[in-house]
Amino acid sequence: MAGKTLKGRTALVTGATQGIGEAIAQALAAAGADVVVHGIEPQAGGEAAAAALAGVHGVRAAYVRADLADPAQAAAVVARAAQALAAPDILVNNAGIQHTCPIESFPPERWDAIIAINLSAAFHTMRAAVPAMRERGWGRIVNIASVHGLVASVNKTAYLAAKHGLVGMSKGVALETATDGITVNCICPGWTETPILGPQIAARAAQFGGDREAAIRDLLKEKQPNLKLLPPSRIGEVAAFLCSDAAEGITGVSLPVDGGWTAQ
């Protein structure tokens, strides 16, 4: 985004040390926002990532380490962000995990972890962040869902449940906050070049003698008409737009960034 359109705002981005979360943190910082980076990396590594972000963009940045599978830690991460920098004006729920296998062999512990991190953690962070946003009369919440919050694929039971739930929850909170200067939206990425996709690409590459590019082409042709694995920066740019004043009339939306996947 051009200019420092978010200067004076503070953002909390969960799962922000790699992939889409890192790209969103970069885009928000480029737009002038101070950023609290959340992750599960050791403190020293996370602080180094935050310092690098601050150095590149000339903003303040801090690191908060928390296990979002733990409801108490998820509920506390907003307060910890406020202690580190300021109460978040912008909340981006990006942290997520994945596991793929048929329903009959899906491990219950993986179901519990995916629902906790991909869905329940967003409930806890939104619940904690909305009151201060209401008091200020301004807030932006961006939840990173997935095309799998809108349509289904096989072997992704827990991920589908979590992402469909995130879409529905976001619509409800958008309605609750519509007169408070707060917007709540989902971004629904398609195939994106991120670590979470790595195991699926590796499994498919094994069918092509280890050829990763052939695996990617085969994966994309099933679902994504543009046949392009998107860079995470594209999701970051969309998130920064949704946080801008230009998007103040957009709330309760689930925006596919999916190369045409959900148009089919």
Automatic annotation (TrEMBL):
The keyword Calcium does not apply. Its EC number is 1.1.1.30. It holds the Pfam family adh_short_C2. The keyword Oxidoreductase applies. GO terms for molecular function: 3-hydroxybutyrate dehydrogenase activity. Belongs to the short-chain dehydrogenases/reductases (SDR) family. This is 3-hydroxybutyrate dehydrogenase. The lineage of its organism: Bacteria, Pseudomonadati, Pseudomonadota, Betaproteobacteria, Burkholderiales.
